[in-house]
Amino acid sequence: MEFKNPANILTVMVVGLCAVVPFLAPALGEPFYVIVFARIMIWAIAAVSLNLIMGYGGMISFGHAVYLGIGGYTIGILAFHGITSAWVQWPLAISTCALISLIFGAISLRTRGVYFIMITLALAQMVFFLSVSAERYGSDDGLNILARSDFGVSFFDLNDKLTMYYTIFGFLLASVFVSWRLIHSRFGAVIRAAKSNDTRVQAVGLSTYTYRLTAFVIAGVMCGIAGLLQANLENFVSPDMMNWPRSGELIFMVVLGGMSTVFGPVTGAFVFLMLSEILSTWTIHWHVIFGPFLVLLVIFARGGIAGLLTPGRTRE
Amino acid sequence: MDYVLVTEQFLNGFQLGIILFLMAAGLTLVFGIMDLVNLAHGSMFMIGAFVGGTITLVTGSFILGVVLMIPSMLVIGMVVEMTTLRTLYPRDHLDHVLATFGLILFFNEATRLIWGPEGLVVPLPALLDGTVALGAGITYPVYRIVIITVGLAVALCLYILVSRTRIGMLIRAGASNRTMAGALGVNIPMLFSIVFGIGAVLAGLAGLIITPITAAQIGMGEDVLILAFVVIVIGGIGSIRGAFIASIVTGVIDTMGRSFLDVFLLLFLPENAAESAGPALSSMLIYVLMAAILFFRPQGLFPPKGAG
To answer: Do B232 and A118 touch (CB under 8 A)?
Structure first.
């Protein structure tokens, strides 16, 4: 069974760690790690969503972080105009992400291969430049969010640290569960089949375009949820959260953890962000070490952590 | 609208197009021939600016800076190709994106380590500092005219190199059938290194000639890189002719949009709406153009013959 291999044991350890950090970190005198883990979990949700289209569907989106930005900015802009009710904010953020990913997907999925990589990048940069030029919403400096989403009930208040943390944790578990169910459904089978041979799937009579587009929208919405959580956690959105290096980092988290594995992106996000956290305490020039590390990883460790820990497994 | 301003902005757009072409030509060559997605091309733009700028400041001569930058970039480009990128050719595009993304992080930080975070200001050579009257009341900076001339000359040389010389013939042979060209005795690895070196020189030249206007900054290559991606996607990947036309179109539309879109919108919208929508829309203009072109022609305007 899948659960017995070392990669999945590692993931269970990471998720278990995420579950106890709010109690463990203050006890160890490092309360700062609570927010670090909250951030890691948000990136993990985004990485899980990217894995859905990139790992299983072969759609290398180099603009996936744009949905983080769109989800976050929807919250930010609504809060800026005084609308803080979560019952308005969240459905609106989700539907905006669905709409934008539908439009972007419809355009970019007409292309293949490297064209797809570049067009997703360009479309994401378009939104990035739009946010930079939006002077009313802070341009480059970003937008402070004065109040977190308000659910209007006393027992569920995002201003409470634990509630905020475990909301993110809950969404992480949900995203992994959703991606696991999707991949093992008929829909997931079509997506995976289309990745290995598009023509044959079409010959069977299925419109691969529609299936891909659906997967693209699901991934966009899932990443948008990560964005709205991020906006709430940080009380701040800025164009930088959807700039293209963020998309590159997301791809790295997925590949680092192991593409096309359900849990890979979670470990990937964890290792990636912990590594940058640790390296950045050594030297401010940590990118000098990190960059070549990424290059070596690509050249020597195909299949990522899951590939290293699972004997005989190589990337599809 | 005032025709003097329109002409000036058109020339500015043309000049941006030239810079984009120098970037896009290298990208599209490397992609068309080696099938390599090279994000680190923007780093070559930046390194060219810093290396050439430093030579200029040390020797006091901008011309010398340009002349010495060319062999330096050739060597840097070939070293990068031989040490890292060579191992990536058999891999898929995802690995290319990841590895060259890692290279960007490295080059940006290495530049910060060597030259410091402030960047480098390179003064305009005194000879080229000034304006020239183009007639009909239009004056234009000499230096920008030089950029346009240099770019057009390079485009011409590149065309001759690829279509009229022996090395160009080898490049085209390598592009259309790598294995066959190799079997006929062409040293394919060396050829690829040279092509990559040429791409690095073109990118470095673009970075260096823009430096007296914008100053050399860390990460300066990335915005240009993304525009260059837009250009080669519009032009058709692998096509130098497509890259040239798409560069000029993109440069002109982007610059004209930024200057005149708000004026244009005034025809349809109330004043305050036009003023707020203008800048936002103009920054999106070329992406909308790209999306529209790809919607009708997913392979770009000039897909190279025989490419899949």
So the answer is: yes
